[in-house]
Request: fold
Amino acid sequence: MTFSGSETLSLTQARRIALGAQGFSGSRPSAVSTRRIHTAIERMGALQIDSVNVFARSHYMPLFSRLGSYDRDTFDRLLFGGRSRYVEYVAHEAALIPAADWGLWQFRMDHFRRRYGAPGTWMAENAGFLDELKSELAARGPLRPSEIDLGEVRGNRGAWWDWGDVKRGLEMLWRYGEVAIAGRNGFERRYGLAEQVIPASALGQEVPEADAIRELTRRAARAYGVATTSDLADYYRIRVRDIRPAIADLVDTGELIPVRVPGWEKNSAALPVWLHRDAKLPRRIDRTALLSPFDPVVWFRERASRMFDFDYRIEIYTPAKKRKYGYYSLPVLVGDRIAARVDLKADRGNSTLLVQSAWWEPDAAGDGAARIAAELLEAARWQGLENVSVSRWGDAAGDVAAALPEAAYHDHPQASAPLSEEHE
Reply:
């Protein structure tokens, strides 16, 4: 389908365009090569990182969602090994981005410096300590915070996640762009001077702010396929007022095409919607996928609600007795709808994938249970787990358990009702 402007897209068309742009059209590959990994990351533009590791860390999940089982050691080598083409920066939140794009983020580094380096701030008052930190890295190369002993310049902790001064200083210097992440030991970051980590060709590039925002808007539009202004702004966490000139430029050059999507409204007014000129409309989306809470498909909750009628929040910080769906529930894509959510936990000691809860969404497909069960088995294999066990919590738990060829059962402290007899 060719788009020329002024088109009206149905919500179903918008969903298929968006999912196709994110890599969910067609079938998964039979084998996952390094080229496919690079292509998937390039398509998304950033892989958000999060420390929660109940089932799998968030940066591992999007590739599994799109490509199926892949070798995580290969992933770690490609993204965290020496000479990696990727590096961490505050793109959406903390995320893996192409190292070649380092200069594209100079405007954000400058913003951080103005915000946190003004007179009277911790950074300004401890400039000498920060110079010592940089001297330590210059002399010894990239280090973990635990390998640096310069003493505490201020005795109290509390702000900034209870970090000590070394960690706090390194994190802020990273935001400034003076320090870069050289890799991780487990999940602990190793920090080096930017020139020790970033390729010289990228380190020497300073992209003017307007040009950087235009390029990031272009990439967000390509990654989303179809998006509102707030969608484009959120992708790389740019203020809406700053992104409007970039959108206007991209419309003028024909890279963004204005369209309408009925139902995408705010305060009863239709929202401006932009289609990337390279967007494709798949005839159908026929994937089943477990999505990370930080997957671009759902990471902007306003868009998830508008696109899928899906009200999503993570309940990690909700008291256990008040949780509605579970500690870390994952949206489940079936076709072009969010059909369910499942709370997963990897019990590695017993080599078992625990389905702590399973809940249907209103758009659940008739074959949803069988498709979700197959995806859970694939997820267990990917994580090296031999078994799947289902708790009795959630209105989809019984259906999913019944669709598994062999499923054990376990109790969950929040389970409010047993499975019916046909599922026991």
DSSP finds 17 helices and 16 strands in the chain. The radius of gyration is 23 Å.
